[in-house]
Amino acid sequence: MRVGIRAACHAAPTLLGVSAGNYGGKLGPHHFPLHKLFKNGARRS
Fold first, then answer.
1. 18, 34 in Cβ contact below 8 A?
2. Which whole number is the average pLDDT over 12-23?
3. d(Cα 42, Cα 37) in Å, to the nearest integer?
4. Closest Cα to residue 18, out of 32, 29, 27?
């Protein structure tokens, strides 16, 4: 996930943000804590 988000930021430098939808678990039991992926700070590289 972290690699994909960074790739999106690199490919689209005007990208304003990345969000995650929550559909009440209807798409499966998996949860990805996006904030924890960047707990040392989201840096553009």
1. yes
2. 79
3. 9
4. 32
d(C-alpha 17, C-alpha 7), whole Å: 13
Segments making up each domain of the chain, as ranges: 2-37
pTM metric for this prediction: 0.52
The string of DSSP codes covering 1-45 is -HHHHHHHHHH-TT---------TTTT-S----HHHHTTT-----
> Which pLDDT tens digit goes with each residue over 21-38?
777 777 777 777 777 877
